[in-house]
Write a structure and sequence with these properties.
The structure is a homotetramer of 108-residue chains.
Chain A lengths: L3 H14 L8 H17 L10 H21 L4 H15 L2 H4 L10
Helix pairs in contact in A: 2-3
Amino acid sequence: MSNVEDALSELRNFVQEREWAQFHSPENLAKSIAIESGELLECFQWSGETGDAERVQSELADVLTYCLLLADRLGANPEELVLQKLQHTRTKYPVDKARGRSTKYDRL
Amino acid sequence: MSNVEDALSELRNFVQEREWAQFHSPENLAKSIAIESGELLECFQWSGETGDAERVQSELADVLTYCLLLADRLGANPEELVLQKLQHTRTKYPVDKARGRSTKYDRL
Amino acid sequence: MSNVEDALSELRNFVQEREWAQFHSPENLAKSIAIESGELLECFQWSGETGDAERVQSELADVLTYCLLLADRLGANPEELVLQKLQHTRTKYPVDKARGRSTKYDRL
Amino acid sequence: MSNVEDALSELRNFVQEREWAQFHSPENLAKSIAIESGELLECFQWSGETGDAERVQSELADVLTYCLLLADRLGANPEELVLQKLQHTRTKYPVDKARGRSTKYDRL
């Protein structure tokens, strides 16, 4: 069974072998995340259907890869980032106000 | 120590309490990833410097959160998506051709 | 000399010949703008230099095309949208406070 | 009646008064287009309906504004960019193959 630490270890090795750390500034990684998220969105450009599930997974993998590299560059643990933010989001969207509604918190 | 399975379990619970699964189609999650990646990029809009590291981490957390939710919706394991894609990327960027260069594979 | 009305007239004809208006919901056009803006950003993924000016112009043309189609779909005049928004932005960024600074209005 | 040259002239004046040209590198403008296109997409995050038409127009205005500034920075005429690209797209999507279909050109 794989976990994030394994994935990060492989990614670090992949980057080091190619001497690519020099290109991986936080800014360049943030641009890369935006670029890859556009490619993911392209899977749904003209229809909401998941036509090609394999392609969706492949594009999602690219977004995730750059997210892990950025977290690593910032010295942050990806799971902890998610869990910390979730604590904050819970308070912005209390269950009794947010249930069954997609309204943004500032209009709840 | 937290791991992705813990984060996903908390996220699933958060979504279920709010009855939000109805909004989380793959298409809507892909849009959400693109939207949040724009907010992450905004941290670097006018400068490549990481001015506000806390804000960068907070925006990255949002992108990661929607990535985990989309992987979960597709029945995929996030770490395995990353590792599978890495196998593919290794063959597109052989070490001897790609070392120290940011050139795209189709122009290597 | 060309103007926006000429460009829109050609675009409308292009779309009509191909019976593509059915795909051009505001939502799909907004997704398309985000997708193409990712391709534009890819020109600057690893460097701030404008390496390939022709490619930058070609990707910018794609973003602009979908912007014109969306304005048309909304019954709005693109130049007037820009000028109206500029009136608003002037008040958010008074010259004496904003001069020479890239700070966002809510922190000026 | 306004046209693009009027809008550009006002934009140039707005930028000059604030001494903002120093921030408007092609790269920063490309990032800005991606950021604003994310805000436009947010109008359709959870639904394909155009709920708030005024907000959609306001976000579209932001994308358009940065597109005009980038075209100007590159010394290009926005309408001509659109018309030149359209010539190219016509050949990629011949009417008889593309009619009524949203298929990408490389799979037509």
